[in-house]
Structure formats: structure tokens, C-alpha cells
Write a structure and sequence with these properties.
By secondary structure, this protein is α/β, with parallel strands linked by helices. Helix content is 37%, strand content 18%. It folds into 2 domains: 117 residues, Rossmann fold, CATH 3.40.50; 131 residues, Rossmann fold (3-Layer(aba) Sandwich), CATH 3.40.50.
């Protein structure tokens, strides 16, 4: 005798534990949970000054030795300008340099501080940055022997420095700020969970998520931390950023929507 009951199809992300950035919206977290996933959010981070100003102060006092400043993040610009002014310098002194800035908020901060921005790349990818600067400077040969200053997080990515070196330019990376976990974040427990296989997948929405994640755990190489963790990225730039930091199991969604990310994760774990 047959019963009227039928087996319900299993939710696409059932039995998966997924790590998301702290800023992930409640709506996006809800989509993951409705798809059957257990969702864990990264701890909130605080932005603080660097522990040691020596390298930054030296770069500022020798700014005449540089041709370009590149700000890849709003925090790098904010902390650089704050230290610049505390050392008795006026932002007008930056007029002697060319300035490249990424992201609307970074550009807005610089312009509000009366810093002229010469180049605004349309993408965060290092290739796009180099192309934008090269086009402004007048061709590939124009970058050779130019000196670039790259203010960034204390634990940041050197991919841009490597790309500039390949283009024949010289560059210095200086720490202008650092990211730390806020309060009693349980960061040690989360690291242990990741290393012991308790996380199946981490989602990165953009390249900043990747950089913040690495900074949060105090690493600039994700190959060991995410050795057995799938990394879902929303676009090619984010996938490139994750791969550039050594994440080994990186894939991207067909589209940048969160629903597309969920579909990509479901497809990845169904195979």
C-alpha cells in the first residue's frame, strides 16, 4: 500500500557551512539559510593606525623622490593624509605628484581634502590600474624609471608592486593603517574551525572583501588557511584578487547577483 507522503527535495545548500563577510546584508544571509546553509559571519573589524610610523614618516619626508601616489582604498588615503598633516605638511604639496585613486569613496575623500586626482581606474584589478596609469603617462615606456608610493593596509597585497616592477617602474609599499578584530570576536575559534574543515565555502563579494579577510587573520597568503575551503566570488576581479593571495579553490558566479552566487555554490558541491 502506497502512502500519500513523498520525499521533499533537499535544499541546494543543505549540510554546507558558509562563511560570509561581516557586512553581508540580513537579506543575503537569509537567502543562504533558506537554501539550507548554516551561515557564519566574519567578525567585525576595527581600523586603527599602524603600530609603527617609521616607514610612513620616512616616505612622507622624502616625498620629493616619488612621481606617483596610488591609493587603492579610502582608509589608506584617510590615514595617509592625517599623518601627512600631523607632520606639518599641507595638502598643496601633493600637487607636485600624480595621484591615482580607486573607488568613489576614495576619490571623494581626496577631492574634499583638496587633493587633485589624476587617474581613476574603472576596475580594481591590477591590470586595469597599470593600464590607466600607463595611458595617462603616455605609453608603456613612460612608466620606466618612475617612482610610485603605495600607501595601504599593514597586511596588504603586493600584487600592484609586482605589476609596476614588471612595467619597469619602482615602487614602495608603506603601511598607513591596520585592521584588527573588534572586541571579543572569537577569531581564534573561527580560524580553528576553518583549518579543521568546519567551513565548506567562503563568499567574497569584491576585492576589498578579500583584502579585509586576509588582514583580519593576519596573513598575506591564503593558501594554507583556505586550503580545503571553496571560495565563491561574485566577479572576475574578485576571483583574481582571491587567487592572487593564494586561495586554491576559487570559482565565480555566472552573474554578480547573490542568487547567482548561491547557484554557483550549489553547482560546485553537487558535482
Amino acid at each position: 500500500m502506497k502512502t500519500a507522503a513523498t520525499d521533499r527535495p533537499e535544499a541546494p545548500l543543505s549540510r554546507l557551512t558558509i562563511l560570509v563577510p561581516f557586512e553581508t546584508s540580513p537579506a543575503d544571509r537569509s537567502q543562504l539559510e533558506q537554501a539550507g546553509a548554516r551561515v557564519i559571519a566574519c567578525p567585525e573589524m576595527k581600523i586603527e593606525p599602524p603600530e609603527d610610523y617609521t616607514a610612513l614618516d620616512e616616505a612622507i619626508e622624502n616625498l620629493y623622490g616619488y612621481d606617483w601616489l596610488i591609493f587603492v582604498q579610502r582608509h589608506s588615503a584617510a590615514f595617509f593624509l592625517d599623518r601627512f598633516q600631523k607632520l606639518g605638511h599641507a595638502t598643496a604639496e601633493l600637487d607636485a605628484l600624480k595621484v591615482c585613486a580607486l573607488g568613489e569613496s576614495t576619490v571623494e575623500l581626496l577631492e574634499q581634502s583638496s587633493v587633485h586626482v589624476d587617474v581613476i581606474p574603472d576596475r580594481f584589478a591590477p591590470g586595469a590600474i597599470i593600464t590607466a596609469v600607463t595611458n595617462y603617462a603616455g605609453g608603456a615606456d613612460a612608466l620606466q624609471r618612475l617612482n610610485f608610493l603605495l600607501p595601504q593596509a599593514a597586511i596588504g597585497r603586493d600584487y600592484l608592486k609586482d605589476n609596476l616592477t614588471d612595467a619597469g617602474a619602482r615602487s614602495d609599499v608603506v603601511a598607513t593603517y591596520r585592521t584588527v578584530a573588534a572586541g571579543d570576536s572569537g577569531l581564534t575559534r573561527l580560524r580553528t574551525l576553518i583549518l579543521n574543515g568546519g567551513i565548506d565555502c567562503v563568499i567574497f563579494r569584491n576585492a576589498v572583501d578579500v583584502s579585509d579577510f586576509a588582514s583580519l587573520f593576519g596573513v598575506n597568503d591564503l593558501s594554507r588557511l583556505l586550503n580545503n575551503v571553496a571560495v565563491a566570488c561574485c566577479d572576475d576581479e574578485t576571483r583574481e584578487a582571491a587567487g592572487g593571495l593564494g586561495a586554491p579553490l576559487v570559482f565565480k558566479a555566472a552573474e554578480s547577483s547573490f542568487q547567482s552566487v548561491i547557484a554557483a555554490i550549489a553547482s560546485r558541491f553537487s558535482s
